[in-house]
Specification:
This protein has 184 residues and is of the alpha/beta class. The protein is built from five helices and eight strands. It has helices at residues 12-22, 46-53, 93-96, 140-147, 154-163, and strands at 26-30, 57-61, 72-77, 87-92, 100-104, 111-117, 127-133, 171-177. A hairpin with a 6-residue loop joins β5 and β6. The chain is globular and about 50 Å long.
């Protein structure tokens, strides 16, 4: 976490937003929502909603559909050729209304990123949140990807995304479901 002392002096409102961003709570959760709704949509479950609304920002994986929550600006990213996966970054309106929000484009549909910019004139105060879902190696999605032309892995794409100077990823939080397993 960056200390409040590192904050550059600028307008009082912007300064309070920077302090809020530096102390925000972020939740990451693979919600593994189901497409048919047989178990109900998770956004309709009051216990689930309560957990999300206790956070300033939430990052969800495997949403499988657009996810919306009152009082949050929800940025959804769904796979173009699959009913699985799906990402959502939700930002509480108390932050979203005071910052410029820039959606960063990744070449990989399982990497989602946004930058929060409290002061567009100060490039040193850009905070990026990167939400990742790396499907299991034995998933049908990864099997289909292996059948086509060679493609970059999710983790290689993440590294290249973060190193790309056009994204200006300086102060970043990377969250998600990486499906880390060891083979024996």
């Amino acid at each position: 976490m960056i200390s409040a002392e590192a904050c550059h002096p600028f307008h009082e409102v912007q300064s309070s937003v920077v302090t809020q961003i530096k102390h925000m709570s972020i939740m990451s959760w693979n919600i593994h929502d189901n497409m048919d709704g047989a178990e109900g949509v998770k956004a309709d479950n009051p216990d689930f909603v309560k957990l999300l609304t206790d956070c300033d920002i939430f990052c969800l994986q495997e949403t499988k559909r657009e996810f919306l929550l009152p009082n949050y600006k929800c940025h959804n990213q769904l796979r173009s050729d699959s009913r699985s996966g799906g990402l959502c970054i939700g930002i509480h309106r108390s932050i979203a209304e005071k910052c410029q929000i820039k959606v960063l484009k990744s070449r990989h549909e399982d990497i989602q990123a946004i930058s929060l910019i409290p002061d567009p004139g100060n490039p040193e105060e850009i905070y990026t949140i990167i939400n990742v879902y790396d499907s299991p190696e034995n998933s049908s999605y990864k099997s289909r990807r292996r059948e086509g032309p060679a493609q970059e892995t999710t983790l290689d794409s993440l590294l290249n995304f973060m190193l790309d100077p056009k994204h200006d990823v300086c102060h970043a939080v990377v969250v998600g479901d990486f499906n880390a397993r060891t083979l024996r």
